[in-house]
Amino acid sequence: MNSSLNNIIAKKITHDVGILIFQFLNDIEPIIQQSLTAAKLKDFYRLKGKYNKGRFVCPFHPGADNPTSLSLNDNKRNFHCNACGKSGTYLEFIMYMQNFSGRNNLNEAKIFAANNFAGLNLGFNSIADFEQKLKDKILERYRKTNSLRYTGYYNIWLLPEIYFSNTAESDRQIQRKEKQIKPFSEVCSSNSTSKPDFILEALDLEKTIRHLKAQNIIDNGITDYDKAIQDAKNSKLINDFTQNADKLNSVDKLSDFMSKKYNIDIDTAMKYGLIYFDKDSQRHLYYSDFFMLNNRVLFPVRDHETGIVVGYQCRQTDLNASKQYKYLNITDYQDNLITNENGTTYRDFVPFKPGNFLFNLYELKNKCINTLWITEGIADAIKLSSMGYDAVSPGQANLTDFHIYLIDKYFGRDVAVNLFFDNDKHKVGQSKSIAAAYRLWQFGFRNIRIISTFKELGKDITDCSVKLHDDETLKLFVSLWEKHAYSFAPASNEDLNTLLKTGLYTESDILSTDPRNIKQVISFAEALVKYIDLKDMNYKQLAALKKLYCLNEEEIETLLNLCTKNFKEVQNANKAENIVKENRHIISDAGQEEKTEEKFINISKAQLFHLKKKFDLDLIQKIDNECSRKQIAAIVGNIIKNKDFNVLDYMPKKINPHSSNGTHTYKYGCTG
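The line above is the sequence of Zinc finger CHC2-type domain-containing protein; the predicted structure tokens follow.
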């Protein structure tokens, strides 16, 4: 068969099965569930027992003869065997009875139930049957048209017309958005009146997640969540640490580090399965030549469904270590050794993506919760939990749509969400909490509060705990912070649209702007654009200036002169001198970074615009030095698509051959 035709078939099947699994079957599941009753299951599978009591002989364990061991409950639509302990939903009962296996086993059960219990007559009996019928239709079209263009087969569809229509429209919207993407210079130079009105839209969370999963399958053949579970179950590294924790955990060092760094006692650390990995334990690893965990504390992240460990966030304990990542997110060892340009071999790791899991959710998911605290750091969630608060952490200053889906699934949209991100000097944590609050709001959450510490006491709860060293006093501060929390309410569409049309702020920027300050930010932006042409300013100058939204119009004009061509002419002015003193670090940073940006070889201005949203200039410089243009394009693509990714995946690794005790310390060509 023609290879191009094979590619069309493969692409079409991957796409349509993705939609089948995550849209069509989910939509008809209520009909399927309603059709499943104890009476129908009894008749179909010829169960023996007492139907009037909903009790039967269990079909799952050998030698079963007790007519009351298996119970079928129509109210909950589930089953349970008192003898063998097997239990689940009615759909899972069908799945077990039909011996469906593999990652699509539950969907196979849905198809079987739809055809045999709900009378829906889908037109296919299994996913394999669906794929074969789809392939037959493509081949039939090919025999008639001889076309090798994928678009010539797009309207072949085995599902109801509504799904084809929705998918086609979705694809058209994506294409339109892609066509609208312009280089930074074009965006800056465009007339502000050409920008469309911005509307803060309400979003359908279920549909968003369904489409996200479908896209995962189209891209990779499996959802990110299922892939993470699969990787965890096959992980030799996770098996090492779950089976041999007593050999691999330096408890005394764990106690010392957690106490000094976080004021968390050893009992709490052990309760959450924390591990201090010392290089002396190297020999107990499956791969004893894996050195990347030396002198790190491992925070295990558990799956919310099963409780199994799916990965570790590994925290560097040597606070003076240079050129090493403070955190590494790891799932497993790489099986193959890598040889660097110097001919030295080393073993890399399989990264863990935290965007599908929330630390401590498994422990809280069955608890009735009124207020859920969400911290930026995992240690902060542990500290809050040890003090009696219900806390989870994404392990990063960001909430993904899947994180929000999990919060909704287990606690509902009426739960009070306390976003307790870091109150750091660069305001990254608080800015990210505003962005998270906007996203929660779009998905229907209305009780959102933004909490922050007193900066003088510390940027997060563990910093404050170390300084106070008294949990009872710390609780008083937490109560005070909560009492004075900002109850989030979005800015009006009019204000958001006005700010966007200045051309100084992107859509992402306006949804990270504190609504309490938006009038002041609008006034600043409107005054600023009077004095500059945005296309003449580099990104770092703009970023530095946007931090100064409290300046008035006269101060803006003076500062712009300081930052650009007329520094010498105005530096003797009294007012200019005052502004220089107040903003010296910003002016210096902008000038120095402008010089650095001129040296970029592989990174374009448009790419730089996106990279600076996520990374500091030092890391961007290393990306420019060490990554190919194709790798840089992939990194920028992930940022534009707001994907959860690890820049480590794109950075060449370097080895320090001069580590102590004859071992290799693995160091990277970037920080982030």
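Note on the example: The CA atoms of residues 201 and 442 lie 6 Å apart. Confidence is low (pLDDT under 50) at residues 164-195, 565-577, 584-591, 654-672.
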